[in-house]
Amino acid sequence: MIRQLKTLDPGRHSRHPLHDFDRVWPESNCYVDLWIEVLHAWGFEPEAALPFTLFVDFEGDQWTFFKFPLADLYRTYGIDVFELNVWRPLIQHVDEQLALERLPIVEVDAFYLPDTHGTSYRTQHTKTSIAMQALDAATLRLGYFHNAGYHELEGDDFRGIFLARDDAHSGCLPPYVEVAKVVSRSRRSSGALAAASVDALSHQLARRPRVNPFCRYRERLPGDLWSLSESADQFHPYAFANFRQCGAAFELGGTYLRWLDRNGETGLGPVAAACDVIATTAKTLQLKTARFVNANRPFDPMPLVATMTCAWEEIMNGLNSRYGPVAGRG
Question: Residues of the chain with pLDDT > 70: what percent?
Fold first, then answer.
């Protein structure tokens, strides 16, 4: 029996505009990107739950691997997400949750995901999260959201995702699995959705970094560049953990503020523009670092970091003056 939440065709799936190729960072990380596409497919506006992107921090050796806060998904859309206890074969859990009209989000090996062709597919074992929305166990086919799209896999890839893992003698640990269920089927009006989003923004603002994270990154970066020059194979993992997580977060944050501006919270353009500065400067920093690592073209990163430092201050001051405790919110 085929289990599916919606009838979707990978060949006709239209990416959400947040994943347009003309954006500075068309993708952020697997968890955020799949949720953008899931919300889009379910008829929700993903922008409404993006305030958390504005408050990423520098975590010592990387920028925050940011994710949709589960409380915000519930507060904004009425979607409840919880961890599933995997106590029997994974395929049985997925089949049952889909039958209950719930979406399993499973940590899998990208080695078996055809959409990663050219990176991980059949070349390296790396973990990633996918949202499984269609299952046909009889024909070994799976429809899933991953990164910025909707895809299908079958045959040996299906066996790699499910059957090899479910073999009692495989030695594989059970994967981490979340399940998303829509508790409220009613859709908020635009005004109510914006109000709920502003409420989430105020809560996130109270948890913002107390010290400008770019100040700490400025101290760390010279040592990172020296390490990358000694070990060029670390550039791509480093760039993902630092340049992309920082740049993509603030680009999404700028898009979010423009969404708020269109929905009644006018006057946020200058703060959104400061987000764009961080996004584009992070991309420039990535490109210059790549040239330094691959072609030995040294550069001074400090002016770029100084630009991002000032932009961060402008963002936080603008948000705090409007949505912080001084403004009577939060």
Answer: 95
